[in-house]
Design goal:
Chain lengths: 352, 352
């Protein structure tokens, strides 16, 4: 199916509108399709279903629903104000994305089981994933508008929507770490999931730099330092989930492992080539949805024996060192730089 | 409790940081508090609980949690790049809001029942309201950043975050229309709930105008036309939910009434002063959570007999006329203006 033929904007009757409006409408439809196809795969599937471009199994359909009424309103408003509707395409795309975000979330809240004559996305994919898919569309809306910012604010305007987009993709990758599959989980998948944490720490640092009018070298160093901090911290949190003090973490013990979630220590143990790793894989494959306390405790011991804990702690420290090196190699004011270093160490190592 | 004393930034030890950083940190904490307090009441309550400023019943607490680590990172990054951390306050506020959005949503998806040592917001307030509260924080983040846009893009940059903010408040007001209370539901509450629809239609029109470089008169006319269209359409949809053809609406018949949702026809009937209104009030008060089909059909007849349908249809048409009047009174290009009028009529009246 070509992008034009199945999408709603192609239904604009040419006799109703001049060529510029038709072209702008087609660009909106094409861009929307591109935004959805570019999402993290699981989110692309849910949003593709929601827009009516795919069935519940991900197969393309011909009945792309949605009349893009709001996009049409945006394009016509631009024309009515005397401009070529093409100038309003980013706005029209963003408005449709926000609209579909709200449909995905509101159907959950309203317990509406039908949308455009089909089961609503939450009925097919579950409430959690439909919520996240809505979040992804909202992030995409702001990603589309941010580059319109002019001058010195442009850099600051793009940081947060980009981070939000990556956080949401990270959360989706993170959810996929749960479940029975132990054979296809690799460290690079885990690092993508880390974006749920690291993308925002990167953005926190980068937006401060951008608003300060930092030069490129400073901005890059602060951005990367924030990213490395995020990965280091996420790994440390995942280690703590298994071996930490619940009084410090404020979370129930072993909550990840209880869900068969393959965080870095588990992945490193599974990939260790040691007998403990093979026994762990076997145990996780055989596990039911509600493993017993002794089972989960036994898994934790297997992960540690196969080197999963030590390896994860090593990698966390290595990212922390990278973060500090980034800061120290850049031209930054000394006092706040060293305060950042102390902050990083306090976060990851829980130094007081 | 003063804003400073109970909030996390006040815990920055003065000997650790110079006065500018402390002041900036306090501004972040104050602004966050102000953002949350300014939300629609039900959302303010949930977010206040989530941040640790209120207990589950809405009473102030002293244990404001959250270390504002990300805000600190943002402020220090600005300082490290050579600026006064004050320049980074809007960025720091936005980053903390995005962070807390993600906590609210991720706890639902991860089924994490504890957050900062207390029951997570979704455990206390339900998944739907916690999702919406997260959405509200995300909207607030973009509302905080949008005014930083410079020059001609500023107007376009603020439209969508503002609309998102109002849509979410509208959805919260809309959810409050369900349930057994029939004595405190007024038309102005319904109109606030209409913002779930009308805020985005207003924005769709306004953002097209803004991107087209419209003058103030054009922008105002297009914005108001979009708003009036939204109210008109929402009322028409609520009328259709009761008396419409499910083949056209694609939604199950009477889905609002089945949930005792007091949309405009119901409110007008209840407030009609007619005997049918009093009987309707009695019936709704006595209704269980799952009313029978004959009950719901009987309510629909009572609403119609008390003038609820006719009154709602009148108000929908009146808003539609206002929308058209707005367009016709402004200096707009004639062809797209008339096409907007046709689009409005097609949406509300389902004219082909």
């Amino acid at each position: 199916m070509s992008i034009q033929s199945g999408t709603p904007a192609a239904r604009v009757r040419p006799e109703d509108a001049p060529a510029a409006l038709v072209r702008a409408g087609q660009r909106v439809a094409t861009e929307l399709r591109g935004v959805v196809d570019g999402l993290e795969p699981q989110l692309a599937r849910i949003c593709g279903y929601h827009f009516g471009w795919r069935d519940a199994d991900g197969r393309p359909t011909d009945d792309g629903h949605g009349k893009l009424l709001r996009a049409r309103l945006t394009l016509l408003a631009a024309e009515a104000a005397g401009a070529d509707p093409a100038v309003a395409v980013p706005g029209a795309v963003a408005v449709e994305l926000v609209h579909n975000f709200s449909l995905l979330h509101d159907d959950i809240m309203d317990a509406d089981e039908l949308r455009r004559g089909r089961p609503a996305a939450w009925v097919v994919f579950g409430q959690g994933m439909a919520t996240l898919a809505g979040d992804a569309l909202l992030a995409a809306a702001f990603c589309r508008l941010a580059p319109l910012a002019a001058g010195p604010t442009r850099r600051a305007a793009t940081v947060l929507p980009d981070a939000l987009h990556r956080m949401i993709a990270g959360q989706s990758a993170d959810l996929a770490l749960e479940g029975p599959d132990v054979d296809h989980v690799e460290v690079d998948h885990y690092l993508r999931a880390c974006d749920k944490t690291s993308a925002l720490l990167e953005a926190a640092s980068a937006i401060g730099a951008a608003l300060a009018g930092a030069d490129e070298q400073q901005l890059t160093a602060l951005r990367r330092a924030g990213y490395c901090l995020g990965v280091s911290w996420q790994i440390a949190n995942d280690v703590e989930d298994i071996w930490g003090d619940t009084g410090v973490t404020g979370k129930p013990e072993l909550s990840d492992l209880r869900r068969s979630k393959k965080t870095l220590p588990v992945i490193l143990a599974l990939r260790s080539g040691q007998s403990g790793g093979a026994r762990l894989a076997e145990a996780l494959r055989a596990a039911g949805p509600q493993p017993s306390e002794p089972e989960v405790q036994q898994w934790a011991r297997l992960v540690e024996a196969a080197g999963g804990r030590a390896g994860a702690e090593r990698l966390s420290r290595s990212y922390l060192e990278d973060a500090v090196d980034q800061l120290r190699a850049a031209r930054l004011a000394a006092r706040p730089r060293e305060e950042l270093v102390r902050l990083f160490r306090r976060m990851v190592l829980r130094e007081s």
